[in-house]
Amino acid sequence: MSEDPRDWEVETRLVRGGLARSPYGEISEALFLTQSFAYDSAEAADARFAGDAPGFIYQRFGNPTTQMFEDRLALLEGAESCRATASGMAAITLALTGLVRAGDHVVAGRALFGSCRWICSEYLPRFGVEVTFVDATDLTDWANAVRPNTKAFLVESPANPLLEVTDIAAVAEIAHAAGAKLVVDNVFATPIFQKPLQLGADIVVYSATKHIDGQGRVLGGAVLGNEPLMSEAYKDIVRHTGPALSPFNAWVMLKGLETLDLRVRRQSENAAKVADAMAAHAKAKAVAYCGRADHPQAEVIARQMSGGGNVVALDLGSQEAAWRFLNALEIVDISNNLGDAKSMATHPSTTTHRSTPEDERLAIGLTPGWIRMSVGLEGPGDLVRDVTRALDAA
User: Fold this and answer.
1) By percentage, how much of the chain surpasses pLDDT 90?
2) Which end of the chain, N or C, is surrounded by fewer C-beta atoms within 10 Å?
């Protein structure tokens, strides 16, 4: 093939990247629903297990459909390697545990999804890994948190749920000076609007459940980076602990990738209109959106993101007002997911961040009046009308 897929435009990568057709020449990617694979001989099995011959061994280790998804996403991200996982939380757990062992130290941004925060504050310490939380927007905090045993930095940018943005390139410099690896959860920005590896990150993590599927169907996750780090840190863990993505879910994700660029760009356009309508309403105490000039980290966003994304955060001042807003919505669903074709809104303090202690929620500015809204593909006029009506009711 004279064409180098790395030279393709984004849209072509999303439709044709990683494509591996069977002898039947199917147009839509083949779905291989199999747990295991047969060998021509005992010698062939020996060679494959030894790594001397190519081929698949067991679905937990790899599958042709899953491999196509991994190759396509790696091509989009600009990574040399991708490991797909059963969920986004499996991906973040894999990303961190592959880099640390007992006695090591992790520095993490304070603003994290509730389950990610639990992994850092409750799960890793069970195995002798200490975690220090910092203000992710304060580079001095990152530098001061470094210890001789620091092995990994963790950043969500934009962060869940209030869209705090971290200077990834600057944090990468601090991490590398300390001999640590930088892990970036890039879910909110998507691989369309932000490229953490190009900014200096070592590992990028996705909940593919969100925009990559984008239509509320299946769970999935991915960890991406360059060799040999991916093999050194994750190959054995994936083989032996089994966080494998199912082939069916991988096939659904492949079809989702085909329209990812179209969907997130339209969602971002809609989100900008919704954010402006919210900000113009008298009931809004504050609005956070990465595409607005009044975002606290607007200068950083201009340097490292090429779009605002589809998530908007709205502060109505109290839980009562927030709940009145949610209950008045007629088009937008009340749901804790995001990145879907359907717009949805949630009250983070009582849903996604419910397990986070109140003092920790307040430390990231998450007071009970905040709403997080994931803007979908509906008509922008309908969404603005629905949100405005709900603001009136708040």
Assistant:
1) 99
2) N
Tell me: pLDDT of 314 over 80: yes
Inter-residue contact 243 to 90 (CB < 8 Å): yes
- Residues of the chain by 3-state class (helix, strand, coil), percent to 5: 40, 15, 45
DSSP 182: E
Q: What is the pLDDT, as a whole number, of residue 2?
A: 85
Task: Report the topology of domain 5-258.
Answer: Aspartate Aminotransferase; domain 2 (3.40.640)
- The per-residue pLDDT for 131 is 98
Q: Is 292 helix (H, G, I), strand (E, B) or coil?
A: coil
Q: Can you give the residue ranges of every domain in the chain?
A: 5-258, 261-393
pLDDT band at 130 (very low <50, low <70, confident <90, very high): very high
Instruction: Calculate the alpha carbon distances from 296 to 220, 281, 338, 369, 376 in Å.
Output: 32, 20, 22, 19, 24
How many CB atoms lie under 10 A from the CB of residue 356? 22
> Letter for the amino acid at 164?
E
Q: Are 57 and 37 spatial neighbours (Cβ–Cβ below 8 Å)? A: yes
Chain segment 157-179, per-residue pLDDT in tens? 999 999 999 999 999 999 999 99
Asked if 347 and 323 touch (Cβ cutoff 8 Å), the reply is yes
Residue 10 confidence (pLDDT): 96
Rounded to the nearest 10 degrees, how much is the dihedral formed by the CA atoms of 73, 79, 82, 86? -60
Q: What is the pTM of this model?
A: 0.96
Q: What residues contact residue 135 under an 8 Å CB cut-off, 6+ apart?
A: 109, 110, 141
Angle value at C-alpha 32, between 29 and 35, nearest 5 degrees: 155
Q: Is the pLDDT of residue 62 over 80?
A: yes
CATH 3.90.1150.10 fits 261-393, yes or no: yes
Give Cα 209 to chain centroid, integer Å: 9
Cβ count within 10 A of residue 127: 12
DSSP string, 214-272: -SS----EEEEE-TTHHIIIIIHHHHHH--PPPHHHHHHHHHHHHTHHHHHHHHHHHHH
Neighbouring residues of 193: CB distance < 8 A, sequence distance ≥ 6: 264, 268, 305, 306, 307, 308, 309
Read off the pLDDT of residues 177-189 as tens digits, 9 standing for 90 and up.
Answer: 999 999 999 999 9
